[in-house]
Amino acid sequence: MTGPPRQVIFGPLHDGGRVEVVARRIGRAIGLGLITDGEQLPSESVLAESLRVSTVTLREALSALRDQGLLETRRGRGGGSFVRTPGEPSATRMRALLGELCPHELREIGDHQAAVSGAAAKLAAERAGPEQCTVLGKLVSHLAMASTIGERRRADARFHVGIAAAAQSHRLTRDEITLQGEIGELLWLPVCGDNPDLGSAVEQHSGILTAIENGDGELARARAEAHVGQGIRRLIELRRRLT
């Protein structure tokens, strides 16, 4: 993605320049599909400067991402660090992650995400132009055509981050990326025999986009909040089944 998402991903870190913080920022963007498979990262000097970290710190972070299988290094002319899209998520790992979150924590995350996504949708309805709406429409289509859990998760995340970008707010974009990194993967995994409804998600995304295209900020907000709420309620119910 271009514009605000990329500026957020490669912008200055506000929570310290530790190796794990740098690795989490870039790794999260790769996991959400905001940096695509095969894409070359900026050079180490350029990336370190944009993140405002030392080159040594950046190199250690990139090394950690290579160990995770999210980057590969190519030597020689035209070489550098290239993105590798992660494989399909493990249901066992996701079940374990869900088990680490109590219903109250899930509700808190949901409240935060509803506030962010709702505000972004309202502002997008007020500020987005035809070009940005076209981009959002393509993202809805990407979700409809996604055939694997990983593809659906990434398409879903890109749509929500795209709305924040259309709202022309770096803060909302940063918050949406963080929230998608926290909870987005769980929303799409079949857990305890419960499978997410792709058709319903596509319909809800389309409804949010229609409200944005029509400039109806309050309806866009309401639909975005309802969409987030449905996903969180499902996770809370699944979490209770694990106990």
From TrEMBL:
Name used for this protein in its record: HTH gntR-type domain-containing protein
Keyword Ubl conjugation on entry: no
Gene3D superfamilies the UniProt entry points to: GntR ligand-binding domain-like, Winged helix-like DNA-binding domain superfamily/Winged helix DNA-binding domain
SUPFAM superfamilies, alphabetized: GntR ligand-binding domain-like, Winged helix' DNA-binding domain
Domain HTH gntR-type, chain residue ranges per copy: 16-86
Keyword Coiled coil applies: no
A Pfam family the protein falls into: FCD
Keywords assigned by UniProt, alphabetized: DNA-binding, Transcription, Transcription regulation
GO molecular function: DNA binding; DNA-binding transcription factor activity
